[in-house]
Amino acid sequence: MSEEKTWAAPTASDPIDADVRVPGSKSITNRAFVLAALSSGETLVREPLDSRDARLMLGALDVLGAPSTETPDGVRVRPMTDGHGQTRVTLGNAGTVARFTPPLAALGSRTVHFDGDPAIRRRPVAPLLHALRTLGADIDDGGRGAVPFTVRGHGGLEGGFVELDSSASSQFLSALLLSAPAFARGVTVRLKGKTPSEPHIAMTLDMLRRFGAAPERDGSEFHVPPATLALDTYTVEPDLSSAAPFVVAPLLAGGRIRVAGWPAETTQPGDWLRSLVRELGGEAVLDDEGLTVTGDGTVRGAVLDLHAVGELTPVVAALLCFADGPSEIRGVAHLRGHETDRLAALATELTALGGDVTETEDGLRIRPTPLRGGVFHTYDDHRLVMAGAVLALRVPGIVVENPATVGKTYPGFVTDWERVLHVA
Ligand SMILES: O=C(O)C1=C[C@@H](OP(=O)(O)O)[C@@H](O)[C@H](O)C1
Ligand SMILES: C=C(OP(=O)(O)O)C(=O)O
Fold it and tell me: Where is the active site (predicted)?
């Protein structure tokens, strides 16, 4: 991770011609760790992400009674065992840790305090805490409905039927489903309203099945019966959302890039980038070697609904600043509750560099204008570092503030980006 407080992100002086391999998926890694902790035997998680969020998840599981060991083959996670007394889970600003681990605490007998960065205290969690209480959990949040809160474990969770509003974050639903096989009666969740990030729900269901559970879905109703989970080995795919800045680079700089190891089939939202590239005028070819993207340095303007793939918004917004016409991003009001208020941050930072970017009720309106160099503030948000890098491809003099914050999901990002642009 860079020790610099700012990063003079490189401009593309030539068309890109590079291969890149991005680290493991945050979403898959942290699900695999949770499911491994809930399993009856040890699980080897191969090619996991090693980043702040992944380490926070392992730290949380450790204090909850599921220790892990790093080996040359990957991370070995041991099954969770019960304990007593008080303990503390550190959340950082990891949504997956804040949402996926409280149900685990309710399954044990410890009293577990959850807290993290100031930013995580502002992120939504109340509907999940409410649902967990309905399912039998004892949670003290001081009436705030937010981090910090305390889960007092009483040795198990009854489970059963619950209604859930998961419109602020799909992670509420994933959290209940992931732990449900260990609830005495499993869980039946009926969704009120629409959840964002549908691919992440599909990911949760798919991974539950791989670990031996039998989740069912009927529209907005989900059922997970009790089950004993077990899986010897789980291999994590590369993170296709971390690949986003590399995938879009040829559209801005021209040339080609190959992202190695792009899966032929996946539940990751980043797979949508293939159709985005084509819609905006580039080419994307998937074969055994990975995904090869070519572009000629032009980008078409577009109206895009990113409700299902919200985490891609910062990079896509940066890209659309260089389109041949106006664009709009819709369906992402929930990004106001992400690492930072991403809609406000993007509108503020892009406008400060000369852009014409305005917030709408559920997204951003982007009218391409010439941009100038300057400081791009990143609000402790890894994906804003990636957005700043994308902008700099075409705008000399962009200085990205606090690049190290990208270590939430991609500690080697700056090094890999500079190598791709031949400045390393
Ligand atoms: O389940 C997951 O792993 C995630 C779900 C999404 O959260 P939201 O539904 O809160 O956007 C996504 O944005 C986040 O990066 C990871
Ligand atoms: C929203 C994100 O993260 P988190 O897992 O903290 O919710 C993200 O990575 O874009």
Answer: 311 (proton acceptor)
ipTM value: 0.99
Helix (H) or strand (E) holding 152: strand 149-152
Each residue of 301-332: b (16+ CB within 10 Å) or e? Answer: bbebebbbbbbbbbbbbbbbbbbeeebbbbbb
Reduced to 3 states (helix: H, G, I; strand: E, B; else coil), residue 49 is coil
DSSP labels for 287-355?
ETTEEEEEE-S-----EEE-GGGGGGHHHHHHHHTTSSS-EEEES-GGGGGSSS-HHHHHHHHHHHTT-
Question: Are the C-beta atoms of 335 and 268 separated by less than 8 Å?
Answer: no
For strand 283-287 and strand 290-295, is the pairing parallel, antiparallel, or unpaired?
antiparallel
Phi, psi (rounded to 5 degrees) for 395: -125, 105
Angstrom distance (rounded) from CA 149 to CA 125: 10
Amino acid identity, residue 407? G
For residues 150 and 34, give the distance between their C-alpha atoms in angstroms, rounded to a whole number: 19
Number of the ligand 2 atom closest to the C-alpha atom of 383: 10
- Cβ–ligand 1 contact at 25 (below 6 Å): no
Does the pTM of the predicted model rise above 0.90?
Answer: yes
Structure tokens at 395: 């705008």
pLDDT beneath 50: ranges in the chain: 1-3
Q: Residue 263 has which token pair?
A: 């899966």
CA 129 from chain centre, in angstroms, equals 21
Q: Which two tokens stand for residue 144?
A: 């705030």
Could you tell me the domains of the chain? 6-23+239-420 (3.65.10.10), 26-225 (3.65.10.10)
Question: Atom 15, ligand 1: which residue's CA is nearest?
Answer: 311
CB atoms within 10 A of CB 145: 14
CB atoms within 10 A of CB 30: 29
- What residues are designated binding site? 26-27, 31, 95, 123, 169-171, 197, 311, 338, 342, 383, 408
Look up residue 414 and give its amino acid.
V
Q: Rounded to whole angstroms, how far apart are CA atoms 357 and 283?
A: 27
Residue type, 198: E
Residues taking part in catalysis: 311
Name the 3-class secondary structure at 22.
coil
Binding-site annotation, residues for phosphoenolpyruvate:
26, 95, 123, 171, 342, 383, 408
Using one digit for the tens of pLDDT, what is the confidence trace for 211-243? 999 999 999 999 999 999 999 999 999 999 999
Q: Return the SS3 of 150.
A: strand
- Whole-number pLDDT of residue 4: 60
